Amino acid sequence: MKSPAFEYIRAESVAGAMSAYAEAGDDVVYLAGGHSVVPSLALRLQAPALMIDLSEIAALSGISFQDGWLRIGAMTRHVQAINDPLIAAQAPLFAAAAPFVAHPAIRNRGTLGGSLAHADPASEFPAAAVAMRVELEIASPKGTRRVPADEFFLDIYETAIEPGEILLAIHVPGPVAGQVIGFDEITRRQGDYAMVGAAVQAVAKDGILQDISIALFSVGTRPTRAVAAQAALMGRVIDDASIADAKAALGDDLDPPDDLQFPATMRLHLARVLLGRILANLEAVA
Amino acid sequence: MKTDITLTVNGDAVREAVEPRTSLADLLRDNLQLTGTHLGCEMGACGACLVMLDGAPVHACLVLAVQASGHKVETIEGLNESGLIKDLQERFHDRNALQCGFCTNGMLMSAQALLSENPMPSRPEIREALSGNYCRCTGYESIVDAISATAKMRSGQTGEVS
Amino acid sequence: MIPSKNHIGQSHRRKNALRHLAGRGRFVTDLALPRMVHAAFVRSPMAKGNIVELDVSEAAVASGVVRVFTAETLNHSCVPWTGTLDHFAGMQSGAQNMLASSEVLWVGHPVVMILAHSRAEAEDACELVMLDIEDEDAVVDGDAALVKGTPLAAEGINSNMCFQTLLETPDLDDAFARAAHVVEGKFTFGRHTAVTLEPRAIVADFDPSTGQLDVHHGTQTPYQFQDVYARHFGLSEGRVRVIAPDIGGSFGMKLHVYHEEMAAVAASLMLGRPVRFVADRLESFVSDIHARDHRVTARMALDAEGGILAMDVDDMTQIGAFSSYPRTSVAEGNQVIRLMGAPYQMPDYRGRLSVVFQNKVQTSQYRAVGHPIACAVTEALVDRAAELLDLDPFEIRRRNLLADDAYPHVSATGYQFEKLSHQASLDKLHQMMGYEALRAEQTALRKQGIYRGIGIAPFVEITNPGASFYGVGGARISAQDGAVIRLTPAGDVHCAISVTEQGQGTETIIAQIVADQLGVTPDQVKVTTGDTDNTPSGGATWACRGAGIGGETALRAGRKLQMQILTLAGEILQADQQHLALASGAVVDKTTGQERITLAEIGRIATYRPDTLPKGSDNSLTAAQHFAPTGYPFDFTNGIQASHVEVDIETGVTRLLKHWVVEDCGRIINPLLVDEQIRGGVVQGLGPAVFEECLYDDMGQMTNASLADYLVPMAGEMPDIEIAHIETPTLDTILGAKGVGEAGTAAAGAAAMNAVNDALRPLGARISQTPMTPLRILTALGHV
Questions:
Q1: Is A188 part of the contact surface with chain B (CB cutoff 8 Å)?
Q2: Is the CB of residue B44 less than 8 Å away from at least one CB of chain A?
Q3: How many Å from the N-terminal Cα to the C-terminal Cα in chain C?
Q4: Where in the sequence is the domain holding B57, given as residue range(s)?
């Protein structure tokens, strides 16, 4: 399990990284925390000619709040999502998701940006990003742009980031008064990839849902917004009846993969159980 | 082909020329003969290779040696000689919290990090902190006991294992 | 008074643990020798096929590559090995050699060996090998393997049946005919594997100038490998040294002959330089032996009061393309059918065993060989009977477990029990776990929709095997052990012994035993293990024999040296040795305890001033002793385990809340170490009950062959484990110790399965397959 050989550059700026990428051609991989890239090298699933290390670029770090949005630098470590007070206050679903991500030592090194750019459909942060309706700030040689999370995740390990582009930051819209969140997953062991997971963010007024945002993960090729389940809940009180309708609606939202270990029927069943539990707990909070 | 790197390992300034593909674990084990850092899976699943990188435990198999350039690494050899974990080591010894010893490096790293953040962890918290550390021999309970006893002693309680 | 020599029975800490805690372990994986080359293998990507093209020319000239071997260039150096033994009548297996020559027979079968200056370069070169294999229909499923017309799994066999046997008492059919009740079930036990944290590792170092082969080998049985290397490579045994330093876990997996280790030795012999092979984790999953993989159909006949009359069992086990060497792959099945019903007064029995070839990794002996299967089947049926008769699980077992005064006893399957303590264990467990309170809590929680379950499982464990185990079948596997103990010139004690250490504490208990014979502290006894040049020959570590056989060997060697010391002391002191004893590092007066002469002084005189000894004195202060069990074929231990679980009936996820063990391993030498052996064993039983399984698709591909996908038990999911002991020493030995290493594994899964089924019972669901995955539980509940 030794990596194939490659060249390595430690980039000092985003522009420098992008120009090194452009010079090198196609066979390049950006490196952030390395916790997805390095194991795939050990497994010889990829063999890049050049690795451009982004982890020391100062512009990719930092967490700040301005104009109603929280800007989280892409190189923010998972552990910061647990410990940082700004994230806890302004991006609570990241804070709620983080303890579910792998294990403590992984969280010390893995990055939020890396996790989102890697776009593993079984991973926690992408679903939290969708549920929070974050926007992803992407740098390209032509300039930067912001892509809503719903349009960012395209397929397994595939995002709106074009070759050579760099994810700069995650922008989280500030929470609305009365907003509640729920995050949970079903795993066989602590820290495993979930069999099913879900991130929920909701705003209720006098018990009536004004807004509900639900994203599930480990149910398909990307974090999946539960549009039908959201519709089943909007404008209603969270109670047994609305929860049952939302669970039923998941049948329209999800088309889980089918394999011997996890048949599609099992994932759908678990997604319903999990969503029901999260909603029931939301009710208590709201 | 090879890249020059400089880093601090257990307080020593180290300069090495490595292939970029070399993991920090292989650098420590093969170049520096710090064989207390073990390799059990080379994909971040077993925790045998944990080292302190800038003071926090990371998987040395998931960090490239070139990425560690300019940073501070501490291995089990360094932690041992520093005396910082002497009490933890003693409780592991008392409680026989290791058999073959292959996971022990990682267990000590995780334990030390946990206790520095959470001086009085509950048993479930200890188990959670060890959730990425595989031990095939002990059944884990003795490791939990040893960490719990260390926490109690460090905070002035008896540390007797109940 | 003489201070009591009471180190046996005390919780001494392990001195060798200190090295590991300091990061100073010395594993084979850590070893780097001058001019050493690193091995990597090109393996078959498919379960069965014919090699139609193999071109290594590009790999041979790749950067860093020293040599490339194929079957053609390597296999001639090794006498092929065949995993059959005579006492398994009629068994068959094809012969094996290091690299596949024409046919590949499982995914992972090594085809090409590449040696390079680094493992990374060797792996680079593997990617340059052109290997074209014509796919053939693989034999994947054991039942299908036996269907007429199915292709053979390997060459050199005349059917896919490796071995069949039948055990039957004359009155079996009659017992079922007169039974008031019959319960039955079909059970499936998944494949799993050892996943030692240190993978298999070897550094073979042949020196052509002297003809000496040194093999640094992460194995539990160095002497067995000394013999294997000598015979299969045509070397004289005296020129083969096997050194087993610190071993990062073993559990039976590291005593089998593997293609890669043999290839490393062969390559070192040809190159005349050290060759290192360390399996990476991906290789481990497709080349370490797997375990279990049984399908069992069983029924149990009971009388009207719930008395067990008989069991009728059919076990089909699937072992891969070959029987493993040198212990075979049939020993587990053989034990499965003989351990059924073993704790019970059960007069009649029939057991059928079919051991079947298929194109997967070989299975063979792993911790608690056969026990978990027999225990789980027996105890599941006992629980079903209890349910049918409306008896409490404790009550039905109380009625059937062998009485504690019923020994010696011979089981319906022919096992001889010297003396066991089933009934006392049952009572102790009932009290320790607070059974009644747990039942009350269970009832209360069910009303809240929380489903908890309690499962219990009595067991016996085979320990201290004699030569009837392997030796009679023609295997060169030693049932005896040897020790050499010497008093050093400074009065310290050194013991070199053939049993080996993998962290279970062998060296510590040997020091305790020797210390008690020589009146010193364990700290004064240095123990050397794991080196065929520096210790006498013996069986080493397998089948729970370190304490029972190794310990007895050390005890007898210690007593022999004690006599030598006392004789010499008598001569030096001009005293009757009958009046002397050893205590506190000295020869003392047996009656008063008064010191007469220190051991250091005896060492000094014997070594430096033998001229001062009376004429004719023997100044030898070294004693050698070998010991082989000659009493019962095995010293059985017994015990009982209980598991407390909570099943989330919506998600199918099982939480292990608590586990209890009452265990009787005879004389306990070190309670601290015994308890850790039990706990570790329990977790190795719970792992496969809940998590661990080597999953294969219908093409014979293992689909979860990495540590990210194969679920080992981790700290967060394992329960605390409470342990109590009963001590019934064996009278076969002076020491009275039996084995304990496999007891935890033997019954943990059985207890857990009974607990899960207890939780599911009110819902009318039942599970009979391990691991008990969420999918299987949800399926049983009708959710999927």
A1: no
A2: yes
A3: 73
A4: 3-75
